[in-house]
Amino acid sequence: MKLLVTGGAGYVGSVTAALLLERGHEVTVLDDLSTGHADAVPVGATLVEGDVATTAPAVLMGADFDGVLHFAARSLVGESVVEPEKYWYGNVVTSLQLLEAIRVTGTPRLVFSSTAATYGEPEVIPITEDAPTRPTNPYGASKLAIDHAITSYAAAHGLAAVSLRYFNVAGAHGAQGERHTTETHLIPLVLQVAQGRREHVTVFGDDWPTADGTCVRDYVHVLDLAEAHLLALEHASSGAHQVYNLGSGSGFSVLEVVEACRRVTGHPVPARTAARRAGDPAVLVASSDRAVAELGWKPERTAIDQIVADAWTFTQQVAARA
Ligand code: UFG
To answer: In angstroms, what is the span from residue 178 Cα to ligand 1's centroid?
Structure first.
């Protein structure tokens, strides 16, 4: 297929673009490089540098794309609380412009990066797609608003659309991995300690209602996640908007993740407990049963040590290149 990948210079977008190319698809990456990296765009993809709202219509026009994979977004929960405008304009308005370009050009398929943050504080674990959507921050709310828009575009205009709700993405795929200028995610931060770039990792709360008192999350390997996007493209059906949760189905506590990083890196990784971080739910674990049943998705890299080991290999490669 001939595909447009917005945000293909970012973490999940670049891994998915690489996999699409490996499977013989033609890939154009559209990225404004505000948080992505030009050197993350895989060899073989065409990079168009520009923002989605103004550039996507020009790229799609008259070029007969078979589909769009829309990764480009702002994705920091904390920032979204302080600067919501970046999320309502940067995520929602931009995505509406993209949807209009898709409608006007008759582009048949869309795969959208949604998030577990659309659910908010869960009542039942594991979280299924039928769980109530009550986001607790503007980031999750902005992604949910886009999901609603996609539902109505699919129904009214025959778009074949799939939203994938990621849980905690981690790991790496060769030269493609997680490289944020402002790093807030647990595994990359712990690996910075192992690299000697930080003194210690801060554990946000040890008084949560969990077995060891720290928050539990569902870590999904970025390559398993990328595979789901290819399956979503195949299974997208005209006029329908399908929604799938993507996680590994098991939860690991913050302390278990730190322990895995110690095993993988051989570094003692000092940890200090601090207060709870605002907005963190205690436990987020996905039910991915629907993706398994309907897409035939099989997450294969579910061991936390493997996820951390792949992230560690990538982190060391980046350090060696610098
Ligand atoms: N944590 C620490 N110390 C740190 C960083 C994180 O203890 O220095 C803890 C957090 O409190 C949380 C867990 O580690 O309990 C994971 O935190 P991350 O920041 O790595 O990830 P989140 O679970 O907060 O966020 C992820 C995605 C978001 C998404 C959210 C909900 O990054 O985009 O899951 O699905 F919105």
So the answer is: 14
